[in-house]
Design brief:
two-stranded parallel ribbon
Length: 132
């Protein structure tokens, strides 16, 4: 590969970009949630946004109906929280586990929260992310 060739192949003008044949995004939760999508949940404090989101992710990872919507493609999910403290996220996951009869697919929901960085030495590098 020649110097600059890589940039030449990925930097496109709008016409070139629109000419690229991209694969269709698969529906995950029909009709409003597709793979490779980002969704924001906005609302007042303490109305259940995080619990709603975690319940949604649990349904999507299991392939189970969520409210009025069918899961068409079960997928692993990422829960990105930049507001709540890690202890509250743990509490909500445990509440979800309890409400589901003690069963939750922790492995399919990945968590990113800023406070975890402070505890990185205590977290194992195992695939499960379980404490070491």
């Amino acid at each position: 590969m020649k110097p600059g060739e890589q940039q030449k192949n990925v930097i496109l003008n709008s016409e070139g970009f629109c000419a690229v044949e991209l694969p269709h995004k698969r529906p995950v939760l029909f009709p409003w949630l597709e793979e490779q999508s980002i969704h924001y949940i906005i609302g007042w404090r303490n109305v259940g946004k995080s619990f709603w989101a975690l319940t949604l992710l649990e349904s999507v990872t299991r392939g189970q109906r969520f409210g009025a919507w069918d899961v068409t493609t079960p997928v692993p999910c990422l829960f990105l929280d930049a507001e709540m403290c890690a202890q509250d996220t743990q509490d909500r996951l445990n509440q979800l586990k309890f409400s589901r009869g003690g069963s939750i697919r922790y492995m399919c929901i990945r968590i990113i929260t800023p406070i975890i960085w402070a505890f990185r030495e205590r977290i194992s590098s195992t695939p499960s992310g379980a404490p070491g």
